[in-house]
Amino acid sequence: MLKHYFAQFFRNLKRNKLFSLINILGLSAGICTSLLIYLYVDYHTSFDQFHDNGKNIYRVNQTFIWSDQVDEQFGSTGPGVMFAMSEALPEVKRATRLLKLNEYLVTYKNELGQQVSFMEPNVLAADSNFLDMFSFELLKGNIKDLLTNPKHIVLTETASQKYFGQQDPINKILTVEYAGKNHTYQVAGIMADIPDNSHLTFDMLMPMNSIPRVKAANWSWVWTGFVTFVELFPNSDIDQVKEKLKDVPRQYAEQTLQQVMNMSYEDYLNEGKQWNLYIQPLSDIHMNTNVINRINQPISASIVYAYGLSAAFIILLSCINFTNLTTTQHLKRAKSTGIKKILGSTRWQLSLGYMIESLIYCTISSLIGIVALWYILPLFSQLTGAPLTYVGLLDSKIFGLLIALVLGMTLIAGGYPALFLSAFKPLDAMKGKVKTGKESASLRNGLIIIQFTVSIILISSTLIAFKQLAYTQSKDVGFDKKNLLSVSHLEWLEPAQRESLTHEFSQILGVKATSICTSIPPNLWAGDQFEPVNAPIKSTPLNYTTADENYLPTLGLRLKYGRNFSKEFPDDVHSVIVNEEAIRIIGWDLDENVLGKKIAFGNDHNQFKIIGVVENFHFWDLWSSMDSFALFHLNSGMFDSGRNFAALSLHPNESKETSALLDQLIIKWKTFVPDRPFEYQFVDEAFAASFQEQQNFLKVLSLFSSLAILIACLGLIGIIIYAIEQRTKEIGIRKIVGASTWQLALLLSKQHAQLILASIILSIPLTIYMMQQWLQDFEYRTEISASVFMISGLAILGLTLSISAYHSVKAAMANPVDVLRDE
């Protein structure tokens, strides 16, 4: 029996090579796309799932206290929050903290005096119980005392090989330079490389008690550099924990408020501010963009789900194609179906034959799809930024998905043709007088509308995404980011040498201005609470940096009132320049009268006089709104992070000239710091990097849109041929009575144009809804204009009419005698 079905399949395959090829290619594309997206979605949804106690681990988040403009939670807390959680909540089994450290210079000198040095940007400090809570694999060392000795350090396997090669690293000494001093650490443990699907990543792990400042500040709630985790006892009531959290800040943050801000918790609330704690499940961190992360940035869940939805669309289009293209062949096979019925074949047997034929199509397509996946996977991985590997293809879930896809596509794609082609009356089929009926026509038209609705949604979404990213990247950030260069690690030099180096930089042709500072947008990380003197509010959060008098002209910041720092005014070390938003938040009138007012900082209430107000500018990425900002003088004593930068404003250059300029900068650098690497970053590239995920999304969406259009057009070819075969005699009669070729082409194309118009109308509200959800991730959003739908709709309509016109003209030019011969 099966041998007969296989023989029938290959016979039909040979007779209808073109349509069989289109069917197989369409189904293969659907299967390959689905497997790709499955690997992608599975990767992102698997984050942090490998920890043994992961389901009981939560990160402690809090209100973003450094801005009244940011609604998101903050994934960082003060060092004292861990102790408060342990004391206030009996449900907490253990609590631990991580501290993201600066980029450190790490050096190993072997027995021969040979030195190996690297800049290490991915170093964390952790409490002693960190490895008890998280199930990272330890290859060497004793887990009990790894993070208790302040002179120990733990490396990943890759980091160990970088410094020691194949030597045993245990007990070897590394020198870590930070805060201008060298500190030695003994390698006490080696961990397996951190899995790709961990949101916690590091190359080196230092004990928290090796950072003296931490112990002295364990009472503080405002040094919000710590990522705090709690592990709850199994079966803890999460709702009760959340309820208890409401009282924790009131009880434990009071000391910080009194000591730092000179106000009570009630005073803080009375100013309209909030300070709440939240717990977030570990598995929720990677795909939740509503929390500002200190360690690694989450991916938007809407992008992951959009990929999944796109894969479902592609599968749907492939199945519709198979249905349409198979149906177009029913006239050629109607007579053979009638003969089989006359010879005794039941409808069930005929349906089974068609279903087996569909199963063979899907099986062959799945094999081709897997082969295609093998070649496409590296490119897709690069395109999405997800480290997808061939190992994922060996997962048993992949085989389960593949079987489900084959069976599902068999039922969807083969079900309708099986029922439709087996339902003909034998005599009508033998005479070639098969009637498809209005229901069949309505179903086919509905499938066409669905196909092109999906295609238009994907095209429109791509255009909107492109428009949004172009809008954000071209948006004025309030300063000249395009020709701004940041040079790192001026802290390696003495203050006088820093000035000498930046002066040497300024003498290079192509450099307009230079400045020494402690941070440059979009990496402005300092913030604290300040007390405006004689203001409506007692305290306000201000983001700030310190810099010399060249900072404003180098960045191109625009003064609205007052003046810049100047060497002619030595007292400027006690002055401050703020932006418009800071004045607004404090509650002062934004005019020249604000000059001379003061803000105080710290227990000793150091007061800084406002000498200038700059226009608002984006000192973070464009995901955030404008916020308050203060600029203190480089010698003010504020913000001693141990980091210094040179900001260089460059003349616009060609890429070759920029490369030559960088070579000259390196030469100057080496004269001052011969044994240290020259590290730099273009500020506009730093801003663009924050949208890399969205750029990848746009590329993949464009790819899916193109694939959808291709599949839809293949389906359109099939349905047009089907429609023409249904109306060949009508075409012949109309031509005999005088209809021209173009009149016939217009007649045949009219129905398809109506279907496309219906698809355009249906796609508009669906696209608007979906893209509005995606645009919610952006602080600054473009408008969804009618032009987007006009462009996508006209493109599809033009393509449809071109295909329809070609085949219609071809049919209309046929000799009417040939098609009416049997009448």
Automatic annotation (TrEMBL):
Pfam families noted in UniProt: FtsX, MacB_PCD
Membrane topology designation: Multi-pass membrane protein
Entry keyword annotation includes Nucleotide-binding: no
Keywords: Cell membrane, Membrane, Transmembrane, Transmembrane helix
Transmembrane segments: 21-41, 304-325, 359-378, 398-424, 445-466, 700-724, 755-772, 784-806
Domain MacB-like periplasmic core: 20-247
InterPro entries, per the entry: ABC3_permease_C, MacB_PCD, Macrolide_Exporter_MacB
Subcellular location: Cell membrane
Major localisation: membrane
Record-annotated ABC3 transporter permease C-terminal domain positions: 310-422, 703-815
Full protein name: ABC transporter permease
